[in-house]
Amino acid sequence: MFFNNNGFETLVSQYEKDKNLQVKLNDFYTNSMKLLKKLAFFNKRIYAMNIYVPKDIEILDFKKELNEIYKDIKENGKLTLRCKMKNIAIFNLIKRCRINKCKIETVNHYLVMYNYMKMKSIEKKLINYWNENCNEFFLEKLMK
Q: Model confidence over 60-84: pLDDT tens digits?
């Protein structure tokens, strides 16, 4: 259940009284839906993939590098040696990750990792947004 104790009843009674709350709740809903749509977009791209990232690797710490790899692939149709040398640290970490139990070696694998990182980034934004606003709407915090 997403509501605190008696949260739904409290929200309904406050909603009827406070026009400001109506606007805030509408904004909360709109912003949450935008993030959920983005999340669904990236989730759909990797839906059938079994992605393994070791627990000691925080994929969001490598957002910049994965964005550079993605840009390199989009511009050149492949990973260039220059990009590999510039981002050697992430390539060493990615060697420990797996997609469908296979090593990450192809351009498509790197694109999957990019999409996975984007999905995780949006998921984190959504959870943070929810948790920052939950008290105002008598909602429970989400676990990170």
A: 898 889 999 999 999 999 889 999 8
User: What pTM did the predictor assign?
Assistant: 0.83
pLDDT of residue 127: 93
**Which residue in this structure is represented by tokens 């990009």?**
83
**Which residues neighbour 58 within 8 Å (Cβ) at sequence distance 6 or greater?**
none
Over the range 17-32, which residues count as b (16 or more CB within 10 Å of their CB) and which as e? eeeebeeebeebeeee
